[in-house]
Design a protein that fits this description.
Blueprint (H helix, E strand, L loop, with lengths): L1 H13 L5 H20 L10 H13 L4 H20 L26 H8 L7 H16 L3 H6 L5 E2 L4 E5 L5 E5 L2 H18 L19 H14 L10 H12 L4 H8 L4 H4 L1 H17 L4
Antiparallel strand pairs: 1-2, 2-3
Amino acid sequence: MDRLIERFIHYLAVERGLALNTLESYQRDLVGYVGFLERSGIRDLNQTRRANIIAFLAELQRKGRATSTISRNLASLRAFYGFLLRDGLIDGDPTANLESPKIEKRLPKVLSVAEVESLLEGPDTGTVAGSRDKAMLELLYATGIRVSELVSLNISDVNINMGFLKCYGKGSKERIIPLGSVALTTVGDYLLKSRGKLLRDQTEDSLFLNHHGQRLSRQGFWKIIKKYAQTAMIDKEITPHTLRHSFATHLLENGADLRAVQEMLGHADISTTQIYTHLTKSRLKEVYAKAHPRA
C-alpha cells in the first residue's frame, strides 16, 4: 500500500504539477488512512469497502478533527482510489457516492488597520534580521500572497524598478502583483544592506534567507510573525494567512474591485474571494451598531 501511495504522489507531482505543500497534505492523509487499515487487519486495498472509509472518517471525528480536515481526508481518498481504478490496480471504488460532511463557512480572522500597523512597526530595521523581517511582513501585507509563495520567492521574482513581483501559486500558476511604495522601499533596503550579510553561497537565489544563508522556511516565518504579534500585544489568533486575509478585507473595505482582488489572491473561483465581502458587511454592521445613536 505504501508503494501505491508513492506512485500516486509521483503522478500528482509529475502529471498534475501540484505544489509541494499539496503533495505533503495528500501523503499525510493517505499514510494515516493506511495506518488505520493495517490496525484493522487490512493489507490489500481491494479488501476495502465503503464501511472501512466510514469507519476511518468516524475515527477522525472521535479524535476531534475539524469538519474541514475530515472533508479533506475524504477528498484525498477519492482522488487516490480514482487513480488506482483508472490504472486497473483495484476492482472498485469504495468512496463512490459517499457524501462529504457539510463544512460551516467561518469568516477568516483579520487584523484592523491599526493592528497591522503595530505589527509592521515591530522589526528593528537597524539589524540584519529586523530588516529582513520588515521586508517580509510589508511584502505579505502589500500583496496578499500566501506564506508558501513568500518563502518561495527568488531575487528575480521582484522587480524593484517596475514595482511588481511575480509568484507561482497553486498548480504553478503565475501571477503578477503590483507593489506599493512602502513594500518596495523595505525590500530594496533589505536587498541593498542586509541580504548580503546573510548570504553564505553566492549561487543561492532565494529572496529571503535564514541565519544559515539558506531559504527561509514556512516554519521559520511562522515563528517570526508570532514574535512580532506578541511585541505588538495583539491578542487575536495569528495564522500564516492573517495578513493575506487582512490585505483582501482592507482592499474591499476601501472600494477595490472584487475581480481585481480575486486576481491578486490567485483564487480560481470568485466565490472563494466573496467570503471577504461577507466579512466587510459584518464589520459595517459593527461600526453602525457602535456609532449610530439609535442602532
